[in-house]
Design goal:
The chain has 267 residues and is mostly helical. It has 11 helices and 4 strands, in the order ββββααααααααααα.
Length: 267
């Protein structure tokens, strides 16, 4: 039987693990049935600090939500989700107990632009209700969804909300330029929104999409003039509002997606 001292001990759980123990004592590994350890040292330290300040049931609920998300999100999630989501759940329950219900300003946008993450958020609300008999408002699903988006792109919450807002703004420019209603359940619309999310992420993370597409861009400019004009309008908006100049490569891809979503709106 091995002993784990507090100096090296990650957060652990087990029946009777703290019986007749005081802070600083070693514990026996035979009693441990769950070990919470994260690869990033800074995140792991923040998680250990969080564990010491909130009920363990919130941590278990958070872990259950993260595990259940793997059935919906087929992408790698940053370990930071264990800290941010657990902290948010703790705060959401505190607000519930105080009769406070927050509204999310980007609720509609998150629901439509980050459909899978929003589904995770809704599933999280069901898990919380089943575990604690607490029914949180649906806006909390949007807050939870953004924590998963944040963990996917390794950004921060300010960046994530900015990305969602920019996707909404570009989407509206295209919509009102052509005076169309999107076919939101179509694969073309799904691809269009995914492209806008990628574009917005690159802008906020100051990354560039580079490829020699000069000949292709001339083709789209001649064959799809309305789509190209709309893409240029988006370019001007981004430069004016965000101080970012998008490349010809981005314009070419944007023109292509705009043309496809415009055509699909009339099918």
């Amino acid at each position: 039987t091995k002993a784990i001292s507090e100096a090296v001990q990650p957060p652990v759980m087990g029946r009777g693990i703290a019986f007749q123990k005081k802070r600083g004592d070693s514990i026996q590994t035979d009693n441990v049935n769950k070990v919470f350890t994260l690869q990033n040292k800074e995140i792991n330290n923040r998680f250990k600090e969080l564990v010491s300040s909130i009920p363990i049931k919130y941590i278990l609920i958070s872990e259950k939500i993260i595990e259940s998300s793997k059935d919906i999100l087929d992408i790698e999630i940053n370990d930071s989700i264990y800290v941010t989501l657990t902290d948010h759940i703790s705060g959401a329950i505190d607000r519930y107990e105080q009769g406070i219900a927050l509204k999310h300003a980007l609720f509609w946008d998150i629901q439509h632009y980050y459909h899978n993450e929003f589904s995770v958020g809704k599933k999280a609300l069901r898990i919380i209700e089943n575990e604690l008999n607490i029914k949180l408002v649906e806006d909390e699903a949007a807050f939870i969804a953004l924590h998963f988006v944040n963990a996917e792109i390794n950004g921060n919450m300010t960046q994530v909300q900015g990305i969602v807002k920019l996707v909404q703004e570009i989407s509206n420019i295209v919509k009102y330029h052509f005076q169309i209603e999107y076919q939101t359940k179509s694969m073309v619309y799904y691809s269009f929104i995914n492209h806008l999310k990628g574009l917005a992420q690159r802008i906020f993370m100051e990354q560039e999409y580079c490829e020699d597409v000069s000949e292709i861009l001339v083709y789209y400019k001649l064959r799809k003039p309305e789509s190209y004009e709309c893409a240029e309008k988006v370019k001007q908006f981004i430069h004016k509002q965000y101080g970012h100049i998008i490349t010809d490569e981005e314009i070419m891809c944007l023109t292509m997606h705009i043309g496809r979503v415009f055509k699909a709106s009339y099918i």
